[in-house]
Hints:
Elements: H1 3-63, E1 75-78, E2 82-88, H2 93-111, E3 115-121, H3 134-147, H4 151-160, H5 172-181, H6 186-194, H7 198-210, E4 218-221, E5 224-226, H8 236-247
Parallel strand pairs: 2-3
Antiparallel strand pairs: 1-3, 2-4, 4-5
Helix pairs in contact: 3-4, 3-5, 3-6, 3-7, 5-6
Amino acid sequence: MSKGNRGRDRTAAKRIVEQQKAAERRRRVTIWTSVGVVAVLLIAGLVGWRVLANQDSGTAQASTPSVAVDDGTAFAVGSGPVTVDIYEDFMCPICHEFEQQTGPAIAQMVTDKKVTVRYHPVSILDRASNGTEYSTRSAGAAAAAAVDGKFVEYHKVLFDNQPEEGSSGLDNAKLIELGKSVGLGDTFAQAVNDKTYDSWATKATETFASRGYNGTPTIVVNGKQVTGPNESLPTTEILTQAVTAAAG
């Protein structure tokens, strides 16, 4: 082989080697770029999942009143052997009627240690408050009052000042003012303004519906719904009879 041919062969071989090295470098860059993209997507996914998990955890923790009973849906008053569950909406005029008509008798049964009353504030009438969601806000305020040990007092003052169905309801300032009138303070006011328990009210209402109820007030004695004739509002006498029967 001539020197010229050997020179050309070495040049060709060198060019092939350089091409192979360049191809290897491109392959490595492609691999590491792909790895980097996958890693970024994985990290982003983990961060997003943690954020959502923390949000869900924080909401559940913040929205469930510490004193709530019956799967976190109600506030218990009394210690009697018969359980009376009352599902009510603070904008519901029939609930107000029931409170005026039978509330004193229920309070007496609590005093006599005949019943444990579990009050379930629900929000089925948000549509009737011109977009202010009064039912949810008042239920959330009642929950805040319960946490601060004033549920019974606040429950009464809410019904004593019930707005008309179809109105905008009471604003938060008025809800706080009513709270102050029964001895509630700054922590209550902050909970109302921060809507701390509004999500709880929504959850309690969903539980209400899942139990097969769709109207307020719904009164249940030891697990059995109590109504008047033709599913009308039960009278004080009918409720008292139901409690007596449940007590045996």
